[in-house]
Amino acid sequence: MRKPFLLKFLLAAILLFGNSSFANEKEVEKGKDKKTEIKEFIEHHLQDSHYFNFYGTTDEHGKVHHVGLPLPVILWDNGLKVFSSSKFHHGEEVAEVDGNHYVLYHSKIYKTDAEGAISYDEEHHPTNVRPLDFSITKSVVMMIVTGLLLLWLFSSLAKSYAKNNSIPTGMGRFFEPIVLYIRDDIAIANIGEKKYKRYMPFLLTVFFFIWFLNMFGLTPLGVNVTGNIAVTTALALLVFIITNLTGTKDYWKHVFDPLGDGMPWYGKIIIYIILVPIEILGLFIKPFALLIRLYANMTAGHVVLMSLVGLIFIFKSWVGGPLSFGLSFAISLIEVLVALLQAYIFTMLAALYFGFASEEHDPGHEFDDDAELAH
Amino acid sequence: MEKLVNDFSFGLFFWQIILFVLLLLLLRKFAWKPILNAVNDREEGIKDALAAAENAKKEMQNVTADSEKLLKEARAEREALLKEAREIKDRMISESKEQAKVEGDKMIKQAQAAIESEKKAAVADIKNQVAELSVDIAEKIIKEQLSNKDKQLKLVDDMLGDIKLN
């Protein structure tokens, strides 16, 4: 694939600045041990946040100044509570709303008293009540931004098709081959010529949504949306729902009667005691694997990348600095590839599951089931 | 696993579902359907155009074959016509030759016959005239010879001499 120079340059710039902005934030709390500090920072980064922070600085008194946007907090705690996250002052103050007190602890909101006391159990987990949190967090903001970007991008592409006699121009030249690839090599290849059309919107949306969010995760904004288990769970759940709602008779027959007519019923009973639960379990394992794969890959990428950046502050030497910079740069490039790859794998596997679900056996091929078992 | 469950944010899950489904519906209506339709139409258009070109090519070939066939036929016809004309010419020539010959022969024969008859007539005429002349001459000779007695006697003697000789 031939990339334009400008794109390469932008990419390099983004990666460079991305790393340096993380670096700024790290110089925050001087008192703590560097290693625990970096570990905490990475953990914090992997989690969702109620702020949209760009960077933070420390003044001469050791006080941290965050530069960013506070986001709306929406809680369900015996009624809807909506307030700005600036009330928490980055976890330093107790927010009082309608006589209730809330505190932000490790990016999570707990209900507390006026002093903001938090009680812990033996494993140092807070035991305070957690109200249902529907806040517009950083991840939600990024999802909205990505959604709007996709909408703008592809609806303008659609419009340009209408205008230019179905010939792609500008961005369309870049995105059309991808759309066609998803259609020809993912959808048609796995689902089949007959039924692929109704799955196309989902496959295209999920591919571009994941890809764009993965790419945003590599920018200095540092949002780790696709590395969040709730997000991947939601995507996998949609795949699960679509797969099973569009399942054909043959699909369900394959689950509950995998051997078909290949064996007499008395022979099947013994095998089915084991086989049918496995098949039913398989229905859930498939989307579960999807959600874990995406989550783990993106999280791991972020952890590795940020740990390598963190090494600079541990080594603090002329060797360690450039070395870890070089390594993190290399990993960043790999992450760009992984961002695309994970989007591809998710889409590909979703298409594969849809293909299983919408499969219809030819009456002429009665031995298909046996052939599948043999593999 | 415990950490995963602990990290699971129901709010984010909720928003993700809502936003994703909304995005899916919007994109389907405003982007994917028009894009896929446009691409499909374009592909169909290309396919049709290719088929049309193929058809045109075939038709072209047909036309060429037709015209070649026509040309061949025309050439054959011309050949046939020329051949016929040549045959007619030859026949006419030979016929007229023959006729001329027959005619000529006939004329020659007639001429010969005419000549023959003329000759015969002439000969007969000459014979008659000769006979008359001979008779006249003989008459004159005889008249002269028999004008005196001596001569008559001499003649008789000669005649008798000849008879004897015979």
Automatic annotation (TrEMBL), chain A:
Protein name, as recorded: ATP synthase subunit a
Superkingdom field:
Bacteria
Query: Any idea where this protein resides?
Result: Cell membrane; Membrane
Protein role: Key component of the proton channel; it plays a direct role in the translocation of protons across the membrane.
Q: Which UniProt keywords apply?
A: ATP synthesis, Cell membrane, CF(0), Hydrogen ion transport, Ion transport, Membrane, Signal, Transmembrane, Transmembrane helix, Transport
- Write down the InterPro entries for this protein, in alphabetical order: ATP_synth_F0_asu (IPR000568), ATP_synth_F0_asu_bact/mt (IPR045083), F0_ATP_A_sf (IPR035908)
What NCBIfam families has UniProt attached to this entry? ATP_synt_6_or_A
Native species: Maribacter aquimaris
Membrane-protein topology: Multi-pass membrane protein
Any keyword Protein biosynthesis? Answer: no
Q: What is the lineage of its organism?
A: Bacteria, Pseudomonadati, Bacteroidota, Flavobacteriia, Flavobacteriales
Automatic annotation (TrEMBL), chain B:
Q: According to its record, how does it sit in the membrane?
A: Single-pass membrane protein
Q: What is the lineage of its organism?
A: Bacteria, Pseudomonadati, Bacteroidota, Flavobacteriia, Flavobacteriales
Q: Which domain of life is it from?
A: Bacteria
Gene3D superfamilies per UniProt: F1F0 ATP synthase subunit B, membrane domain
The job of this chain, per UniProt, is described as: Component of the F(0) channel, it forms part of the peripheral stalk, linking F(1) to F(0). The b'-subunit is a diverged and duplicated form of b found in plants and photosynthetic bacteria.
Instruction: Give the UniProt family note.
Output: Belongs to the ATPase B chain family.
Instruction: Spell out the protein name for this chain.
Output: ATP synthase subunit b
Annotated coiled-coil positions are 43-98
Localization per record: Cell membrane; Endomembrane system
The protein's UniProt keywords, in alphabetical order, are:
ATP synthesis, Cell membrane, CF(0), Coiled coil, Hydrogen ion transport, Ion transport, Membrane, Transmembrane, Transmembrane helix, Transport
